[in-house]
Write a structure and sequence with these properties.
Helix content of chain A: over 70%
Number of strands of chain B: 12
CATH class of the largest domain in chain A: Mainly Alpha
Largest interface: A-B, 20 and 30 residues
CATH superfamily of the largest domain in chain B: P-loop containing nucleotide triphosphate hydrolases
Bound molecules: adenosine-5'-triphosphate, magnesium ion
Radius of gyration of chain A: 24 Å
Distance between the termini of chain A: 6 Å
CATH topology of the largest domain in chain A: MetI-like fold
Radius of gyration of chain B: 21 Å
Order of helices and strands of chain A: HHHHHHHHHHHHHH
Strand content of chain B: 15-25%
Number of strands of chain A: 0
Distance between the termini of chain B: 31 Å
Number of domains of chain B: 2
Mean pLDDT of chain A: 86
Structural class of chain A: mainly alpha
Mean pLDDT of chain B: 81
Low-confidence stretches of chain B: 1-10, 349-353
Oligomer: heterodimer
Chain lengths: ~300, ~350
Amino acid sequence: MATYLLKTLLKALVVVLGVSLLVFVLTRSIGNPVNTMLPLGASTAERARLTHQLGLDKPLLAQLGDYVAGVAQGNFGESWWQQESALTVALRPLPFTIELSGIALVLSLVFAIPLGILSALKPRSLLDKVASTSSMLGICVPNFWLGLMLILIFSNLLHWFPTSGTGGWQYWVLPSVTLAVLPLGRITQIVRTAMLEQLRELYIVTARSKGLPEFWVVTRHALKNAGVQIVTMSGWELGRMIAGYTIAIEAVFGLPGIGSLIVDAIGQQDFPLIQAITFVIAICIVFLNILIDLSYPLFNPRVKFK
Amino acid sequence: MIKAPNLREDVSPLLSVQDLKTYFRKEEGGSVKAVDGVSLHIRKKEILGVVGESGSGKSITALSILRLFPSPPGYIAGGDILFENQSLLAKTQKEMRLIRGKDISMVFQEPMSSLNPAYTVGYQIRENIQLHQNVTKKEALDHAVDMLRLVGIASPEKRVHDYPFQMSGGMRQRVMVAMALSCQPKLLIADEPTTALDVTIQAQILRLILETREKVGSAIMLITHDLGVVAEVCERVVVMYSGKVLEVAYVNDLFNHPAHPYTQGLLQAIPRLDDTRDRLSIIPGSIPNPANLPEGCRFYPRCQYAEERCQTEQPPLVSPKPSQWVSCWRVAGEKEMDSDAIAATAAKAPLNV
Ligand SMILES: Nc1ncnc2c1ncn2[C@@H]1O[C@H](COP(=O)(O)OP(=O)(O)OP(=O)(O)O)[C@@H](O)[C@H]1O
Ligand SMILES: [Mg+2]
């Protein structure tokens, strides 16, 4: 277990460093932030002063050195745009994004697991066909469009939920439903496939031969073995949502999530902020993956951490 | 007051399968006749051997008794299964569940995949016990430990917490036997319980099943490829071929006077220590495809005695002498039965001993 943790942390370090490096290179190639930050008619002297102030006049390698040294001390520098610690700005929308993604994931699991199981129990039945068609649809439909449609129907027409913004539980309904649709489709499909695989196993016949009710056979025996695949897929979907998949939904519903912050940071060419956000997301994903790994022994006792 | 012995109870079999037909619906239409008119019976505490080549319908017959064959596509196309004089086919799913694991239990061919990898063996045995007996979790686990001890697993109070992957194939089959016998079933169906195991372990498991049965008092339906095993442990034997029963006899009779040409062929195919021939005499040809069965006797394409009649008419199961049943025109024809007499004996076949 100790070696596993050490190995995982080392791997995580490599991943986070790699991501940071990549982002560093990418930011430097999206253009010159001085152009965005100064008014149109700024003089050459002013431009030079700002370039120097931002440290952009140093050679690229030196900039990288400063950046790495800063990160090592947990210092991402000041956000050029917000004039405060880039890390603070990057962390601000994180609780909201995690909450929204978490609600969407729970919502999709609540429907995906029973739906996937029922489809697997009666493959090629009407229910199975309806479920696979709608999960395909859920995967394909663009979520900004879906969000707009939901607003149109449930806010503008029926006035059940507010159109946008944050507040009480009513504000969460439409965004999380919209966000849940794609993971719902994907997870339903993975549950179906995994359950079909398990239900073919001989241990299922053994379980039935003991006289177990079918509900137990399916939930205690088959579902537990399908757990690894379901958890992996769910973790992956959660990671995607946290990593900014929520952008379109945040835009449609006017929400203060990490997605819109990324868009703004890129628009402002705010290098320290972009770097801080990617760092935060990378850490979240790595942490999520460790959690997923640690959950495997719950479903498969053969998993040993080495 | 002396109670008169209940003759009926002694005579009536524990289980009787009557003209059972289990078919599998094919997607392109039509059916695979996996079990096509099988009749057999098992008496209380009896060990009945069921032999036959691969694909002859042994497993599907066994699974039909517990109604556990894959369905769909499988379905019962006819016949009946009586357990203690009650039709299992007429029972509801719920009633069937009360019988499974309690009155009738089963051990499968592949010990490596018949246990759930995600649960300890203790849990899996306990589950069976708790389902059918009104006991606490602790009592059930203690019983599971006792069962593991009974099937010869060393330090059972430790092994009961093991997962299947921590055990060898032989050990897992012991666990299966322990589980199957944990509620003292009246009938144990053992579907080739030793085929997947090493030769040395095969004998151990077989002995174990027999010894445990002595203590528990179950009847056994022992499905096997191995006529040697049948000779050693069974009282009677049913020879199956292509979804049909070809011969039923006491083991001694079968080995000394096999009546069906197929049985004769099988017996000649057993290697013998004093065999000086270079090659074993094996029956040429192979079992017919169940999707494309011959019209008459299923065995006629491979039978050295095949006549015209065999090609077109299916021979009935008739009894040339007490306790022996044969499905072959050479036997049925010899007795020169008219069709009515044949039908009458055939109907009695499963109940007669
Ligand atoms: N799910 C299924 N769908 C279609 N046909 C099947 C199915 N299961 C079994 N069969 C058919 O039933 C026939 C009998 O199968 P069964 O498993 O009972 O044979 P067996 O005598 O047990 O053979 P073995 O000695 O190999 O175990 C096979 O030939 C197969 O074609
Ligand atoms: Mg079989």
